[in-house]
Write a structure and sequence with these properties.
Elements (H helix, E strand, L loop, with lengths): L3 H6 L3 E8 L12 H11 L6 E6 L12 H10 L4 E5 L8 H17 L4 E5 L6 H14 L5
Parallel strand pairs: 1-2, 1-3, 3-4
Helix pairs in contact: 3-4
């Protein structure tokens, strides 16, 4: 098995950062999709191995792109040997991350010819996250008068 460093330098491996965002330019605070995408990419340290995609689309409205499902299928067709997927906008795994990303996304990638699919769980109830959440809550509670 290759070392983690070897996997990072493997150009056939991709990290997919999936962001859940609102669709409408009229009703959403996301009024400039290209600018929003650039901001997100900059905040996640995107390089040639890292792709930012958008999830949660439904209905007839156009959502921010590129779409996660279409990107996973394309990567599979391109023969990508490994994709690691993370959803940093969620602090707990849910129906969207577990079914839509981990299960359906895995199927789309593999059915299109992709190799290994690895879903990276979010923080959930890990001790480090519970400690951080406790600290955040404590810092933001109003002290009684």
């Amino acid at each position: 098995m290759p070392s983690p460093a070897a996997r990072i330098t493997d150009t056939t491996a991709k990290l997919l950062v999936v962001i859940s965002k609102s669709p409408s330019r009229r009703t959403s605070p996301v009024r400039r999709p290209r600018e929003e995408r650039s901001r997100i990419e900059a905040s996640h340290g995107v390089d040639e191995r890292t792709l930012v995609t958008f999830q949660s689309r439904f209905g007839a409205q156009e959502w921010l792109q590129p779409y996660t499902d279409e990107t996973l299928a394309r990567l599979g067709r391109e023969g990508v040997k490994r994709v690691d997927v993370i959803c940093p906008g969620f602090t707990a795994d849910c129906l969207e991350t577990l079914e839509e990303i981990s299960m359906e996304g895995r199927h789309e990638f593999k059915a299109a010819g992709g190799g290994d699919f690895h879903y990276i769980p979010t923080t959930n109830d890990t001790p480090a996250w519970m400690t951080a959440l406790t600290q955040i809550v404590g810092e933001n509670l109003e002290t009684p008068a």
